[in-house]
Design a protein that fits this description.
- By secondary structure, the chain is α/β, with parallel strands linked by helices.
- It has two domains: 34-116 and 222-310, Periplasmic binding protein-like II (D-Maltodextrin-Binding Protein, domain 2, 3-Layer(aba) Sandwich), CATH 3.40.190.10; 117-211, D-Maltodextrin-Binding Protein, domain 2.
- It is 46% helix and 18% strand.
- The protein has 13 helices and eleven strands.
- The strands form two sheets. The protein has a six-stranded mixed sheet with strand order 2-1-3-10-4-11, sandwiched between helices. Strands 7-6-8-5-9 form a five-stranded mixed sheet, with helices on both faces.
- α6 links the parallel β6 and β7.
- The protein starts with a helix and ends in a 20-residue tail after the last helix.
Length: 330
């Protein structure tokens, strides 16, 4: 009887061992995928550096397949986050705020950079200062996006508003990579330009800097891009979320320690997405207007939201309780 029991036990162990071997083989061939989103803008350089240096892959481990998806604007990015097409990534604070207020499950868990928004005018438009913008046409990536709010806040403080709220400025939208051609055609007079596109227009078509980064509203304090994910991801998969933000932090630190190489990576990253290879001198000029940091100031986020409400982009004054989660960047 004991002999039979021993044979039975050995048989069970062999079966279990075989099952375990099959599971491991199956698991090895079925990696889980994490998708990171970002834009072809200078403020999103940490994503390009992390991609090039495989930082997300290093932090997430061999059992995770890392993919990247790029977006032309914050609206499409936020739709992808809400639908689960991406797990997180970099987006402007404006679209993230609007989505949070609308009930979308999104949390800011880190910043990417500050600065980098420049207001430029078309050569020949006659616009040399903010006083000349009244009655002119300006362009931003989207209505109510980060750069739009920064510009319209500045102009409203000067007593000039857009036609959207009964003012004289005409507002159109378009991708920043197309700003240069729209200036050349004379379709628009002023651009709320995220870097490096402001520097591109300065160098290539003699665009004039009307409002520098240091002067435009929230120019040096508001995160120009933030790292976001869903609160569901942050709460239910905190270990993976921490690995994502650790990789992002590593990329930000790398940029600050190796600016020359980071500039080259950014040039190549933008070229891969837009087909435009930018001069290094252009990126170097844009780099001076950008401060790369992963730290978030939630007070500035609230101030920016209040300004969005004052400009009537938001119907109600926003409450950002629970929007910024700093636990992963401590």
């Amino acid at each position: 009887m004991k002999k039979f029991a021993g044979i039975l036990m050995v048989g069970m162990l062999l079966i279990l061992g075989a099952c375990g071997g099959d599971d491991q083989a199956s698991g090895a061939g079925e990696k889980e995928t994490v998708t990171i989103g970002y834009f072809p803008n200078l403020n999103h350089a940490p994503a390009m550096v992390a991609k090039q240096k495989e930082m997300y892959k290093d932090h997430l481990g061999d059992n995770v397949n890392v993919e990247y998806k790029t977006f032309p604007n914050g609206s499409t990015f936020m739709k992808a986050l809400a639908s689960g097409d991406i797990e997180g990534g970099l987006v402007g604070p404006g679209p993230a705020m609007n989505s949070f207020i609308s009930g979308v499950d999104v949390q800011i868990i880190g910043a990417s950079s500050t600065g980098g928004t420049v207001i430029v005018s078309r050569d020949g438009s006659g616009i040399k200062s903010w006083k000349d913008i009244k009655g002119k046409t300006f362009i931003s990536p989207r209505v109510g996006c980060t750069h739009d709010v920064q510009f319209e806040t500045y102009m409203k403080n000067k007593g000039i508003t857009s036609d959207r709220i009964g003012g004289s400025m005409k507002h159109v939208t378009g991708e920043p990579a197309r700003y240069k051609s729209m200036f050349e055609k004379g379709d628009v007079d002023v651009a709320t330009a995220p870097e490096p596109w402001a520097s591109v227009m300065e160098k290539k078509i003699d665009a004039n800097v009307v409002i520098p980064t240091s002067d435009v509203s929230f120019g040096e304090t508001l995160p120009a891009a933030v790292f976001v994910t869903s609160s569901k991801m942050a709460e239910n998969n905190s270990e993976r979320t921490q690995k994502l933000i650790d990789a992002h932090k590593e990329a930000v630190k790398y940029i600050n320690q190796n600016p020359d190489e980071a500039i080259d990576i950014t040039i190549n990253g933008i070229a891969d997405i837009t087909g435009q290879t930018l001069d290094k001198s252009v990126i170097e000029n844009a780099w001076k207007r950008t401060n790369f940091t992963y730290k978030v100031n939630e007070n500035v986020i609230q101030q920016f939201g209040n300004s969005s409400h004052n400009l009537e982009f938001l119907k109600e004054k926003p409450d950002f309780t629970g929007f910024v989660n700093k636990s992963f960047i401590q």
